[in-house]
Amino acid sequence: MIHSLFLINASGDIFLEKHWKSVVSRSVCDYFFEAQERATEPENVPPVIPTPHHYLISVLRHRIYFVAVIQSEVPPLFVIEFLHRVVDTFQDYFGVCTEAAIKDNVVVVYELLEEMLDNGFPLATESNILKELIKPPTILRTMVNTITGSTNVGEQLPTGQLSVVPWRRTGVKYTNNEAYFDVVEEIDAIIDKSGSTITAEIQGVIDACVKLTGMPDLTLSFMNPRLLDDVSFHPCVRFKRWEAERILSFIPPDGNFRLLSYHVSSQNLVAIPVYVKHNITFREGSSQGRFDLTLGPKQTMGKAVESVLVSSQLPRGVLNANLNPSQGAYTFDPVTKLLTWDVGKINPQKLPNLKGTMNLQAGASKPDENPTINIQFKIQQMAISGLKVNRLDMYGEKYKPFKGIKYMTKAGKFQVRTYQHFLMVQTSM
Amino acid sequence: MSASSAFNEEKMGSSSVGEAEYAYDPVSGKIFSSDYNRHDDLKEMLDSNKDSLKLEAMKRIVAMIARGKNASDLFPAVVKNVACKNIEVKKLVYVYLVRYAEEQQDLALLSISTFQRGLKDPNQLIRASALRVLSSIRVTIIVPIMMLAIKEAASDMSPYVRKTAAHAIPKLYSLDPEQKDQLIEVIEKLLADKTTLVAGSVVMAFEEVCPERIDLIHKNYRKLCNLLIDVEEWGQVVIINMLTRYARTQFLNPNLNESLLEDGGSGDKTFYGSDEDEDDDEKENKEKAEAAALAKRKPYVMDPDHRLLLRNTKPLLQSRNAAVVMAVAQLYFHLAPKAEVGVIAKALVRLLRSHSEVQFVVLQNVATMTIRRRGMFEPYLKSFYIRSTDPTLIKILKLEVLTNLANETNISTILREFQTYIKSMDKDFVAATIQAIGRCATNIGEVRDTCLNGLVQLLSNRDELVVAESVVVIKKLLQMQPEKHSDIIKHMAKLTDNIQVPMARASILWLIGEYCEHVPKIAPDVLRKMAKSFTYEEDIVKLQILNLAAKLYLTNSKQTKLLTQYVLNLAKYDQNYDIRDRARFIRQLIVPTEKSGALSKYAKKLFLALKPAPVLESPFKDRDHFQLGSLSHLLNAKAGGYQELPDWPEAAPDPSVRNVEVPEWTKCSSREKRKEKKVEKPFYSDSEGESGPTESADSETNSASASDSASDSEQSRSSSESEESDEGSESEEEKENKNKKKVVKKAVKESESEQSSEEENRKLEKKIKQQEKDSETVSDDEESDSESSQSTSEDSESEAEVKKKAPVSRTPPKPVKKEKKEMSLLDLDDFEPATSPQVTPISTLLSNSLVTDLEGLSLSDSVLAPSTITPSGTLKSYELLHRITGEGLSVEYCFGRQPFSPDANMVAVQLQFTNNSTSETKNLHMKDVKLQSGMRVKEFPEIELLPAGDTASAVMGIDFCDSTQAANLQLCTSTRKFFVSIQPPVGELMRPVFLTENEFKREQGQLMGMNELTEKLILDAKYRNEHAIVQRVTTAAHLSRVPCGSDNECSPSVPPPDHPAHRFAGRTVTSGSLVLVTVATGEEGVAQLTVNCEKMVIGTMLVKDILLALTQ
What we know:
Chain A is an alpha+beta fold.
C-alpha cells in the first residue's frame, strides 16, 4: 500500500522521509514539485499525481505537504484518511504540527510512523494504543529521561491491541474523575445580496474530554435526538443502541476524542444569527469606490455574538482602502487585496459599521466582480440547532464522576455575496 | 530534543566519555557539515556499555535516516546492538536494520538468530514483533526462514501473532513471488480464522498475493460479512472492496429486470418498497416476484447472501473514517438494487465537510454516480453550491456535479447559481462555469435560448477570457439550430475586431464559414479583414481562415475568388508545414484546373457537409466501469494491480459453495419459496452464533438487521435471544390467533425433515410456550386445583410455601423444569397428543439429561438449605457451540440453578454435548482458560469418549464475580480447539435466600436511595394473576418468594388482597449482596417494580430483565 512518505515544507524542502518497503528515491518528488509550480495556490495541487512508476497522494496540513508514494491500486481515500490521521497524531503528541516540532521530535515521529504502518498497511492508529507504546514528549519527561537515562518508549507491550476495546488504554487511573463534552455547531451558509439565505446547514460535533478511572460505560441521551439528520460515530459508540433508542452508549477512549459528528440538513430551517448590510459600489469612470458595511445580530436567542471577524477579497483593481470602523480594527493587504476587520463583540444598541472609500488604479475600468464577505463569529452557551443533551450516565464503575457539558455555535463557511446576478435569466423559468 | 536536552547531552557526554562531541544538535544537520570521520564518535557510543549512550547514538542515526542521509557505513556497529536489553534502543536498531538490511545482506544475517529466538518467546507480543522485523528484512537468503516463521505463526495461539503473520505474507511475496503457492495455503488457513483482528490483515494479504483466487472466499464469505462491523477500520475498507468484487461474480444483477417491470406497468417504486424495512421488502419482493412468475417472467429473488452483505455494510456508512464510508458507498452503487442505493447519498454529502483532499476524491466519485443515478443526489443539490473560498479543484468538480444534476425542474435555480459564479475572481472557474452553462443548454432544450442569450451578453464582458470561453460555447450551441440565430452570428462577427484569444477567433471564423449562407454580406468582409492580418495570426486561427476562404469560394466565388487566392498564397509560404499542407490541399480541391481530379466535383459536399452538433458530455461518463473509490477510477486509467470489476453473471453460480458444511437447507431449495425463506432466515443468526464466541462484548451489533427488535441491553445478548424476540414480535403482531394451527403445521413439517435445525426447534418451542400460556389462562381455575394437589404431593422436595408453575402431569416436575427445550416437545405431546404423534425426541438425549438431573437432584439434596426455594419455569438453554462451527459437535448450556457443590461462590452451568458427526469425539475437556480478572472456573471432568450421534452432559462451575461479562473458555477435543464463551443472564448471578416479610422490609429500608430502582409497568390482562407474576419473576431471576403475611397463595379459595405486593429475595453468588425485588400490583394491571440492590449495575439490569419478563 503506502510505500514511502515524504514531508515537504512550504519552500519545497523535503525535511523527512520514511520508507516502509524498499527505498524510493526522493527524486520522485520532482513530479510533485512540477504540479506544485503549475498550481496557482498551495491548495490547488492535485491530491493524486500519477508518475511513470508511482502515484503520489498528498495532503496539505499546517503548510506541510505529506506526500505518500504508492505503487499500485489502492483506494485514494484510504491513503488520504491515513495521512490525516498521521497529522492528527502528531498534533496530539506535540501540540502543534509544524516543521519545527517535527524536526525537534524526529525520533518520536519515526517511532510513531513505524508503529502506525506495517509494510504500508495501517497497524495502530488509535491514539490510546500509540500513547501506550510511545509516550508523548513533555518538557518534564525530556528532562527526566536525560537525567535518568530512561526512555519514552513504553516498557509494557501494547496490550491495547489485544483488547476488545482497542481504543481504550488499560489501567487508567485518575484522582479527579471528570467527563466534559463540548457540543460545537458550525453554520455553513451562503447569503445572497438581498440577505436571503441561499443555503444553510449546521454541522455539529461533540468533542469529549474524558478522564475516568477504570472501564466506565457511558450513555449520553439527547432531549431531541430526531434533530440529527446524519451522524458519524467514533468506533466506540454502539451503533445498534443508537439505531434502536437514539442513545449514545459507549466505553470512551481515554482523553480527548470526537464522539460524534452530525449534520442538521438544509431541509430544516436554520437560524441565521447575524445579518449584514452592505453597499460596495464602483462607479464607472471614477477611480473611487464606496464601501459601507454594517453588521447586526439576528436570531441569537438573546446570546451575544462574539469574536466577529469579517474578511473580504477585494477586486484586483483596488489599490488601497480608506475606511473608518465604528469599532475594532481593520487591515487591508495591498498585495493580496484581502480586507479583514476584527469586529469583536456585536453590541445590538450600537451596530458595528465600516465605512469609507476604496481607491482604484488610475484609468482602470470598474471591476466586474464584487467581493464575497466571509464572516466568522462565535456564540457561547448555545447550540443553534437547539440540540440539548438530556443526561449522561455511567455504569460499570462505582465512583461519581464530575460531568460537564458546554455548547457553542460558530460560523463555519459563512459567506455573504454582494454581487448582482448578471441579467441572464430575466424570464421566470 | 529541545535546546535544553542538547545542553544536557553535552554535560552528560563530557562527564562520561570526554572526547566525544555532543554539542551538535542531532537534528539540525550541523553534524554532517564538516569532517569526514564524523561517524567515529557514533561508533564509539554504540560500542560503549551504557544504554544511554547507545540510545543517544541511535537517535542521531535515526535522525540522519529521516533526513535521507546515508548512514549505511555504521551497519556493523549498529547491528551488534540488536539484542540490546533497552527497548527503545532495540526499536531504533530495528528501524535501522529494516532500512539498510537490503544493502548489507551479509551483515544483516547476523541479526537473524535473535529474531528466531524471539519467535519462540512465550510472550505473544514479542513473538509478533520478532516476526514483524524478520519479515521486513528484505534479504533473499532468509526466504525459507521467513516462510517457516510465517507458517508457524499462522497457527499460533494468539490472534495478534496470526495478524502479524498475515501482514508478513505480502512482504515475503514481494521478496520472492515464487513462494506464491505456499503463501496461498497460509492465506487459506488464515482466512478461516474467526477473529476480527486477523480478518482485515488476511484479506489485505489475499488482495496482494492472489486476488484472482475468489474461490478461497466462498467458505468465509458469511463469516466476513458478519465480522465486518468489528474489524478495525482499515481492514473494513479492504474487505468491503474485495467483497464487492466477489459479489459481482456470485450474485445476479438486482437491477436486471427493472425495465421488464416497468413495461409491465408496475412502477419499480413499489417493487422494493422502502429500504428501511427489509423484511417487508422481501415479502413484497416475493409477492411481486410471484406475480411476475405468473406473467411467465423469470423472477428475480435476491440471494440471501447478497442481502446479508448489503445489510451488514450499511451501518458502516456512519463510520468516522471517510475511506470506510466511500467503500460502503461504492459497494451499494455496484451491488444494491436501484431503490436502495439512495442511502449512501447522505453519507457522501457528509464527507464534503471534511478536508479538501477528501472532498476532491468524494466529488470525483459523486460526479460519476450522478450520471448513472441522478435522483439520488437531487435532494442535496444545495450542498454542492460553491463558495468563494473553495480551492479551484473543488469548485470545478462541484460544478461538474451541479451540471450533472440539472434537469427541467431545477435548472432555473442552478442557472441562477451559475450566474453568480460568473462574477467570481477565479478565472479558471468562470471559464468552467461557462462550459457548464453550455452543457446545461444542450441537455435541456427548454433553457437553450435563455442560456444562449445569457452567453451572448457575456460577449460584452470586459474580461477577454470570459468572452473567449463564451464564444467557444456559443459556437457549439449554434450548431444545433443555426438558422434561428443569424443575428448572433452577426454579432460575433463584429467581435473579431476586438477579441484576441486564438481559440475564440478560430471559433468565430469557423461559425461564419459554416453558416456563410446565413450571413452572405458579412462573411466576405470578415475574410477581407482576416486576409489583412493573416500573417500575425496564431496557427489555429490561420487554419480557420483557410477554411473560411475555401467555404466562401465554394458558395460565393464571385466576391471572394481573389481574396481566397491571396490567402492561399500567403499560406503557401507559411512557416508551419501544417498550414502549407492545408493550403496546397485546399487549392487542389477547390480551384478547378485541367489536372484536377474527380474530387473537386465533390468539394462543396466535402466542405459544407452537414456536421452533427457536438455532444457536450461529462468527462465522468462511463467512468463507472472502474470500481468506484479506486485509484484507477480517479485517474480514469488502469493503475497497476487494479482488479477489474467483473460483470454480473448471466446465471447465478451455485450458492451452496458458501455453505460451511453440507447443510440440510440446500435440500429444501427445490421447495416453494415461502418455505425456503423460513428455513434460510435463521441462518443469519446461525452464522452469527458461529462467529460469536471470539468476539468482543458488544459484538452483537453485527447481527444488526435494521428490523431487529429494539430491546438491546448494555451487554450483548446471545443471538438466540434476539432470534426469539424477533419471532415473538412477529407472532404477537399477526399470528396470535393462528397459533395453534401454526404449531401443528410446524410440528408436521418438523417431522418431515429428519434433521431439524436447532433454530426450527427453538421457534417451535416458542410457539408452544405461547400456546402453553394461552391454555394456562383458559384453564386458570383447574390449574390452581391441580396445583394445590401437587404441592401436597411434593413436600418431600421442599417445604415450599409457594409452588407456582405450569402443571405438567405424569413427569416428575423437577426434571421437567431442568429439561432442555426438547422437553417442550414432550409437553406438546401432553397437550395435543393427537396432532403430533411423529415427534420423537432422541431417547438417549432424554435419558442422559435425566441422569444429569438426577445428579443435580442428589447434589441439591445434600447442599440445599431448607430455606432455599427452587424456582419454577422452564429453563432456557443457550448455544455454546454450533454444530457447524464445532464440526459436528454441538454444545448447549443452561443454568441449572442448583448450587455448585465444590465451590459455593460459583454458578453451576450445565453443558450438554451432542455429537452430530459421523465419527466419535474424544477427550472433551476445557483447557487454557482465559478469563477476565477475578473470574474463576471449575472445569468439568473430561469426557473421554462421545460416540457419533450420542449426547453427554456435564456440569461446571463459574464464578462470574457478579458481572455479566462473558467467560471466555476453550473447549478442546482430541483434535480441535474451540473458543467459546458463556454469558450469564443477570438473573442467574444470584441464589435465592429465605427472608420473612419483616426481614425483607428491614433490609429494604437499608437499601434505599441510590440502591433502589423503580419502574412502572402495565401488566397484560391475562397475566395479572399472582401465579403468572411469580412465575415470570422467578424465571427471569433465581430468587425466592417472600411469604406474605396472609397465606392466601396456599388456599385459592380465600380472595387475595386488592393490591398485593409480591416480594422476592436473593443474594448475588459471589459477593452475597442482597437482591430484593418487589412487584406491587394496582388497578387495571398497573404495577410497580422495585429492585433494591447495592450493586447498581446488577440492579439496573435486573429491572430490565424482569420488566421484559413481565410485559412480554
